[in-house]
Amino acid sequence: MQVIEGQLVALQDARFALVAARFNDLIVDRLIGGAADALRRHGVPEENMELVRVPGSFELPLAVQRVADAGRADAIVALGTVIRGGTDHYEYVASECTKGVAQAMMASGVPVAYGVLTVETVEQAIERAGTKAGNKGAEAALSALEMVDLMRQLEA
Ligand code: INI
Fold first, then answer.
1. Beta strands 134-135 and 129-131: pairing type?
2. What's the pLDDT tens digit per position in 88-111?
3. In the 8-state DSSP scheme, what is residue 125?
4. Beta strand pairing status for 112-119 and 75-83?
5. CA of 58 to the centre of ligand 1 (A)
6. Spatial separation of the C-alpha atoms in residues 141 and 122, rounded to whole Å
7. How wide is the angle at C-alpha 135 spanned by C-alphas 130 and 137, nearest 5°?
8. 124, 139, 119: which is closest to 34 by C-alpha?
9. Residue 56 Cα, ligand 1 centroid: separation in angstroms?
10. How do strand 16-21 and strand 75-83 relate by DSSP bridges?
């Protein structure tokens, strides 16, 4: 059986956009750092990476869609952190962000890696932003890298 699978390699001309929320920036900045570091360490040159900031995770889908439609990137990493509060606001932000990012990927055909933490507490967020549960930004960046390679293989 022929297996077609993306490799964790940086194609020299592949461009990556990190689209990141400023809300909860203490955490999100760690996700950005993890994502950028993972891309760099896999050989993505600095000039092939850009960072786009939006106010909060609710705004991620539109910016992701715009970056994709403008042809600015071969893959996008969406980064944000939604932390449950005392009201149901969290549910709306998290669900619209998740749905919207997925819709933007399907509508544009550009791979979008989902690096948005949806957690109950600040402690859970810290654990996933470069401490004991790894760095979800870095994990998302590696998915983006792999998907670019897979999309190229599936092109012809
Ligand atoms: N945005 C987040 O990225 N994380 C959150 O936890 C959050 N909460 O809980 O309010 C949040 N709200 C802001 C939202 O994303 C929009 O920026 C705002 O509603 C303006 O449209």
1. antiparallel
2. 999 999 999 999 999 999 999 999
3. H
4. parallel
5. 6
6. 22
7. 125
8. 139
9. 5
10. parallel
Would you say 1 and 101 are in contact if contact means Cβ atoms under 8 Å apart?
Answer: no
Residue carrying structure tokens 């690096």: 115
Long-range CB contacts (< 8 A, 24+ apart) of 4-7? Answer: 4/150, 4/153, 4/154, 5/150, 6/145, 6/146, 6/147, 6/148, 6/149, 6/150, 6/151, 6/153, 7/146, 7/149
DSSP designation for 79: E
Sheet holding 49-54, edge to edge: 49-54, 16-21, 75-83, 112-119
The label of the residue with tokens 């004991």 reads 132
E-state strands within the chain: 16-21, 49-54, 75-83, 112-119, 129-131, 134-135
Per-residue pLDDT tens for 99-143? 999 999 999 999 999 999 999 999 999 999 999 999 999 999 999
Q: Is 42 helix (H, G, I), strand (E, B) or coil?
A: coil
Atom of ligand 1 nearest to the CA of 85: 9
Q: What would the two tokens of residue 39 be?
A: 């891309």
To the query of whether residue 42 is one of the catalytic residues in this protein, the response is no
Catalytic residue among 55, 71, 89, 123: 89
Whether the full predicted model's pTM is greater than 0.90, yes or no, is yes
